[in-house]
Amino acid sequence: MEEVRKGYVPVLVGKEEKLMEKIWVPIKLIQHPTIVELLNKSADEYGYQHQHGVLRIIYDPDSFKALIQEASKNCI
């Protein structure tokens, strides 16, 4: 079983269901406007009832990691 990281939320990110990557997002960034927009778009695609406990975002994982890194610099 994977260890839970305190202060982070696991998010599955990818453009295809089978290729999604788990990325740990700092809780403080969950309300970042870009993250909220991506979550809303993904909710439109998946619906909230199909999340199965883990948030899913339809986005390129490498681009998402860069977005998280940049947002972290600006969110102190």
TrEMBL record:
InterPro entries: SAUR_fam. It comes from the Eukaryota. One of its GO terms (biological process) is response to auxin. Belongs to the ARG7 family. This is SAUR family protein. It comes from Vigna unguiculata.
